[in-house]
Write a structure and sequence with these properties.
It comes from Geochorda subterranea. This is Crosslink repair DNA glycosylase YcaQ family protein. The chain has 13 helices and 20 strands. A five-stranded mixed beta sheet has the order 16-17-18-19-20, with helices on one face. A four-stranded mixed beta sheet has the order 1-13-14-12. The protein has 406 residues and is of the alpha+beta class. The chain has a domain of 79 residues: Aminopeptidase.
C-alpha cells in the first residue's frame, strides 16, 4: 500500500484486533520464538473475577453503558459478564456502596470509575447554565427532593414522589411526567444528586455533597477527551460523541490533529475506508504486533450497546459488519429481531442471535440464530456458538435453552 498525508496505512485486521484487545475480548499469539510484551494475550475473563474484577473491568473499559432493556438482560450486566468470570449483578451493586463507581453522561448514561468524577464538571456546568427557569411545580419538586434527601439520606425515586406532574422531559407538549422524576433528572445532570445504590437496578439517590463530599472538578474539556480516546482506543472525528461533548466537526478534527502533532495520537488509514482513524500512540506497538498474530476462535455474544459496538461506522469499516439495534423499529421492519446480539468469533462477527429470557419459566428462548452469508457454518463452529448460548443461559439463571441449534 501507499502512504499519504492523512495517516499511515494499516490492515483492517490490526485495527479491529486492537479494538477487541483493548476491550478484553481477544486471545492471540504471535507463535513460538516470538517474545516481548505483545507476543500473546488473553481475554480479561481469565484474569478478572468477582467484585474486584468488576471494578477493574469498569476502570479498563473507562465506561459501561447503562440501559434498562432486559429482554435478555440489561446491557451493563451483559458487558461485564463477558469480561469478568463468575460475574453477578450484586458485584456491581457492591461497588456503588463502596463509592468506587458513579453514573453520568459519557457515551450515554454510563457507569464510571469514581476517580473520574471531576472530569465531568464541564458537562455539569454546561447543563446548569443551559437550564431555563423552571415552572413553579418543578421548582417545588426540586426543593422537595433536596429536603427529603438531606433529612433521610439515600432514597429510591418512588419514595420521593410528590404527586405533581409536569411536561415530559422529551415531550414538552404533554403534562404526563412525575414532577419528582423530572426534578431528579435535572438535579442529577447538574451534579446536585448522585445515584448512591442500584439494588436490583433500582436507583437510590443521594445528595452529591453528602455522599461524595466536596469534590473539586476540572475546568477543562481536555481530560475528558483523553478519557474518551482511552475508552474507544480507535476513534474517528465523524463520531458525534467525539470527546463526549457536543462541538462542531471542524473543531473535533482540529483537536485530533493537535494531538497527532503532540504525539499523543497516530492517524491511520485502512484501504477502502474513507475515514481517517486515530489511535493512541502508546497503542501503536500493540497494533503492529496484532497484525500478524494468530487469533483464537473464542465466541462472545455481545449486547447491542457493548463498548465494541459503540461506533456502528467503526464496526462496518473494520469488521465489515453492518448492525442496527432494531428494538425501536416496528416489527414489520425488523430483519434480525428486537434484541439481536452480534456473535463474535475471534476477530470476526459471524452471526446474530435473537433471544429472550423467560424468567418465569427459567428458559432462554432462542427466536433466531443465523450465520452471516460469508461464514461457513461448520460443525465445529456451530458447536462453539451453541456452547456460548448455553453458557449465557447458565449465567442468567436459566435451566435450559429452548430453540433449534442452527
Amino acid at each position: 500500500m501507499s502512504r499519504d498525508d492523512t495517516g499511515r496505512w494499516v490492515p483492517a485486521a490490526a485495527l479491529r484486533r486492537l479494538v477487541l484487545a483493548q476491550s478484553g475480548l481477544l486471545r492471540w499469539s504471535r507463535g513460538q520464538g516470538r517474545r516481548g510484551r505483545h507476543a500473546e494475550g488473553a481475554p480479561w475473563r481469565e484474569q478478572l473475577r468477582g467484585e474486584d474484577g468488576v471494578h477493574q473491568a469498569v476502570r479498563r473499559l473507562e465506561a459501561v453503558q447503562l440501559d434498562p432493556v432486559a429482554i435478555v438482560e440489561r446491557n451493563h450486566h451483559l458487558v461485564l459478564r463477558n469480561r469478568v468470570a463468575t460475574y453477578r449483578p450484586e458485584h456491581l451493586e457492591a461497588l456503588y456502596r463502596r463509592k468506587l463507581v458513579f453514573e453520568y453522561w459519557a457515551n450515554a448514561r454510563c457507569i464510571l470509575p469514581i476517580e473520574d468524577y471531576p472530569l465531568f464538571q464541564p458537562i455539569r456546568e454546561r447543563l446548569r447554565a443551559r437550564r431555563p427557569e423552571q415552572e413553579p411545580v418543578l421548582e417545588a419538586a426540586m426543593r422537595h427532593v433536596r429536603e427529603r434527601l438531606a433529612a433521610e439520606g439515600p432514597l429510591p425515586a418512588r419514595r420521593l414522589e410528590s404527586g405533581d406532574r409536569v411536561p415530559g422531559y422529551w415531550d414538552l407538549d404533554a403534562a404526563k411526567t412525575k414532577a419528582t422524576s423530572q426534578a431528579l433528572e435535572h438535579l442529577w445532570e447538574t451534579g446536585e444528586v448522585v445515584v448512591a445504590y442500584r439494588p436490583g437496578d433500582q436507583r437510590h439517590f443521594a445528595l452529591a455533597a453528602e455522599w461524595l463530599g466536596q469534590v473539586e472538578g476540572v475546568d477543562s474539556w481536555e481530560p475528558l477527551l483523553h478519557k474518551y480516546l482511552r475508552a474507544y482506543g480507535v476513534a474517528h472525528t465523524g463520531d458525534l460523541r467525539f470527546g463526549w461533548r457536543s462541538w462542531p466537526a471542524a473543531e473535533r478534527k482540529q483537536a485530533a490533529e493537535r494531538l497527532v502533532a503532540q504525539g499523543t495520537l497516530t492517524a491511520v488509514r485502512v484501504e477502502g475506508v474513507r475515514r481517517t482513524y486515530y489511535v493512541l500512540s502508546e497503542l501503536v506497538p500493540l497494533m503492529a504486533a496484532l497484525a500478524d498474530a494468530t487469533v483464537a476462535p473464542d465466541v462472545y455474544l455481545l449486547p447491542p450497546l457493548d463498548n465494541v459496538l459503540w461506533s456502528r461506522e467503526r464496526v462496518a469499516d473494520l469488521f465489515g459488519f453492518h448492525y442496527t439495534w432494531e428494538i425501536y423499529l416496528p416489527p414489520a421492519k425488523r430483519r434480525s429481531g428486537p434484541y439481536t446480539m452480534p456473535v463474535l468469533e475471534g476477530d470476526r462477527f459471524i452471526g446474530r442471535l435473537d433471544a429472550r429470557l423467560d424468567r418465569g419459566q427459567g428458559v432462554l428462548r432462542v427466536q433466531r440464530l443465523t450465520f452471516e452469508p460469508d461464514v461457513e457454518p461448520s460443525p465445529e463452529r456451530r458447536a462453539r456458538v451453541w456452547s456460548g448460548v448455553e453458557a449465557l443461559a447458565e449465567d442468567l439463571g436459566a435451566t435450559r435453552v429452548d430453540g433449534p441449534m442452527p
